[in-house]
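[job 0412] stage=fold_complex status=start
inputs:
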Amino acid sequence: MKKSTLTSISVVLLVLFLGGLWYYGNGADIKITGMYASPFGAGDPGKLNITLQNNDSKPVDVWLEIENAFVDENGTSYSTPRLIISDNSTNPWDEGTVSLQKPIELVPGNNSVSVWLGYRLPGEYPVKVRVIENSRLLDEGTYLVNIPSPELHLKLENELERRNTSDVYRIYGYLINYGLSSADKVSTNLTVTNEKTGEIVFTSSESYSVGGQDKTALRTWPGYPYTIVEIAHGKPSGDSYMPVENVIVGKDGDHFLLNVTSRWQNQVTSAELHIPVQEEGR
Amino acid sequence: MKHMIKRDELFSCKSTKLLVLMLLLFGICAGCLGKDPVEARVNTLVQGLGDQDERVSSVSANELCEIGEPAVDPLIKALKDENPQVRSLAAQDLGIIGDKKATNSLIEALKDPVPEVRMNATFSLGQLQAIEAVEPLTELLKDENGGVVRYTVIALGMLKDPRATEPLCEVLKRDDAGISYDGDSDMRYTGNSNIRSEAVFALGEIGDPRAVDTLLNLLSDKEIGSSAASSLGRIKGEYVFGKLIKLLDSKNPTTRTNAVAVYEHIQDPAAVPILVRMLNDQVPDVRRETAYALGHFKEPEEISQTEEPLINALGDSKVEVQAAAAGSLGNIESKKAIPLLAELIQSKDSTLSETAIHALGRCKGPEAADALIAALGNENWHIRTEIVYSLMEIGDTRAVDPLISLLGDENYKVRQGAAIGLGKIGDRKAVEPLIKALETEREPDVRVSEVQVLGELGGPEAIKGLSRISTDKDEYKNVRINAEKALVILKGGGAVNASSFY
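[job 0412] stage=fold_complex status=done
writing structure:
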């Protein structure tokens, strides 16, 4: 082979190597320098703020792959290589709010990127973040997100209406949650006991849901109380009190104890109310 | 020295030139691949149209529409994709993007073997206002798939081209045109309309006088006669007037009813005396439609002819005629009718009662407000709520005290309406009663409205009340958030941080 041909081939190979190196390169110098998520509860969208440092001298387009970004009530984890949740969503599981991830342009220096997170149940979730450029992993890191449990409490209030033939107690109940996380399907039981005989005269069971730092009225119909207790002075009024389903009718001298107990996972909370309510100074 | 090659010799070597050229091409391609993110993204999204995950295909389609013009060529190419889902979504997107460059390819797609692709191509051609598609579309009216025919009819209506008039009139004569196509699995194709009613609507859109006779004949049709009336109303003009007025004397009550209905859309003053006479028609449906149509004649000389007959119609033996007359008297803002409308609020028929309330709201003025306030004691909570909303429409300050009283109404919908009404009237006298109502109000929706109104009315007392609510841990979250928002606005603060309390 002629020397000139060898030289030509060498030059071409060198140029090809440099060209390939230019195109495929060693990857941009991108590092995850910080991750932080403000506290948020189950059922609410949260944000993981990621600080990415671009040590290159020019902008770089990267993709973020987030493992465990969303975990449903069955423990199924949804990663976000393709779908991300738009920033105006309040429901991370609503398909109308998802969009395909776009490449993120990182300018030289520090960049702050936020990604959406969401969990249906309390617990600890390791969120793995991978920074990708052209299918090549540039950096990765893990952040442990702690989703606190709801803090459930019950509250009972009553309003008394004195009629000619009876006293009607309208009982209003509230499931209050002081925690950040919501609680779905909170099993709530009402037991009414005749305090003189110790006999249970009424029971009912219903499930309620309550959001984080919110409260839910224990009722089936808006505008109506949870329970009605009628203490008849003689013959009961015969009022059905529809659509209220928890109705107890007693007579003068009857004393009832209303107990409401709510259970959610390992949490149990209860509230009690005596009817007739002891009036002050009596 | 013999084997040494000079620079010139190196570049004159054919193979070297070829390699350099390849290198350049490689560089250009690599540069293109790496430096046109939009094109790369469009290609990814077009691939996404065929994804089995419906969310991915749907989101891909939406994003391609957002990208717009740069996506047109790839989408045109996608009309030939092997996957019918890709072709269908591409056809849909091309219509939404609205680039006429896609017209010929979409016309070609009308021959696609998959009905969904033909449907989307048809609809998109309508969206593109592609007049050149009229003839291929009229051919598609013979398609074996009902959904395709229906979408073709709709598209022809969108194109508004008179060439489609006769083919559409032909469709109305077909035996299979009455079939409803509401059982399709795709949500986009659901609906109660059948092909005939779509064809009637399309003829109205086109507005070609040649359709007048067909539509007038359809006025006797019990199913689509009212649609035909509406389409005739859109064609308008003298083409309709002469022939229509004769149909008011038709022996067929359906024809008379639908002929009268046309006057809801075209106010031909010549018809007013005839319509007034028709308030005495033997058939209640005709009287009802007439009473309703007369409410659309709003010129003073027309009202002078219609007001008294409409007031008389309030005494009709049929509730539906009374209700139509009441509505029309509201439309013409008849002051004379106020006492009678006030009486009708007490009607046992809730529809008539509500219509009278709404009519009084439209009549406006202190007399109407007084009549409504006087009826606030109605035992039906729904009626009380409607009165509150009509008082709100009038906006008279004399309603403030009655609305304050209604903050203690037994029904929460009435209480909520009262709060909203007080906000609309905007009298700060309501601040203290609203704060007091919030002490006992149990319904979250009402509390939210009361808090919002306090935010609108403002003042130091409102701020104090809102501050208390915004820091109450036992409060409904939505109420607390609204209190915070109101406070931020009242104090002239910056962005609202709904969870800042914690």
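[job 0412] summary: The interface with chain A takes residues 3, 5, 9-10, 13, 15-16, 19-20, 23, 26-27, 30, 34, 37, 41, 44-45, 48, 54-56, 58-60, 62-63, 411-413, 442-445, 473-478, 499, 502 of chain B (CB under 8 Å).
[job 0412] exit 0
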